Amino acid sequence: MVFKRRDRRPIWQIVLDFVYPRGGWGRAFEYVKHRVRRLPDTPERISRGIWAGVFTAFTPFYGLHFLVAAMIARVMRGNILAALMGTFFGNPLTYIPIAVAALQSGYFLTGIRTDVEGIGKNFSRAFDDLWHNAKAIFTSDVAHWDYLISFYNELFYPYMVGGVIPGVICATVCYYLSVPLIAAYQNRRRKRLRAKLEQLRNPIPPEHDGSD
Questions:
Q1: C-beta separation of 103 from 159 below 8 A
Q2: How many CB atoms lie within 10 A of CB 167?
Q3: Which single residue of 24, 87, 118, 180 could bond 114 by disulfide (Cβ 3.0 to 4.6 Å)?
């Protein structure tokens, strides 16, 4: 079976649109906000989903944010689709301040100390270990785990611990802002729908022009 790629744009253009959408991140944010408000659920459930998505953006589980957000939303009985959309709180414009806040908090809470150069070395060495261990599966080489363990202890673990506090704060702020906004939007939308239904049930008769 041959699968055809529907999107005919070059790969580099698709990647560029992810980093910076053609309409800009402001337009992308407006689209996500519009889609969230129109979800068929209660404001509280939608906002709990947003909480899960925003909190997940502060975790180091990159590549798994959708899955983590969906799991948290399910536990909180929040809207899962809202949780997936809420993960867009983490984007190329916010990843750096999120990472800085999470790591600084994590280093403070765990007492671990490192510098920017050490962070770069940990990433590089962890990638080397991953590549070496992947090749070791098919060769006689022995897998190495030292750099991966160092990466976990000095980066992943502090990031995971430190992301909790700023993640909870930002997610909670988004929750309390979202509930009244979504409730107001849904109320206005229901009033418009009722007005349209009433107009369909009782159409205004055309005015008599007096020609008879």
A1: yes
A2: 22
A3: 118
Sequence-distant contacts of 191-197: CB under 8 A, at least 24 apart: none
Q: What is the DSSP letter of 89?
A: G
The CA dihedral of 91, 87, 41, 176, to the nearest 10 degrees, is: -80
Tokens of residue 133, six digits: 């261990």
What are 167-178's pLDDT values in tens digits?
A: 999 999 999 998
Residue with tokens 């270990």: 129
Q: How many CA atoms lie within 13 A of 96 on its CB side?
A: 3
> What's the pTM value of the predicted model, to 2 decimals?
0.73
- Summarize pLDDT for 51-108 with one digit per residue, the tens: 999 999 999 998 899 999 999 999 999 998 889 888 888 887 888 899 989 998 999 9
What is the 8-class DSSP label of residue 156?
Answer: I
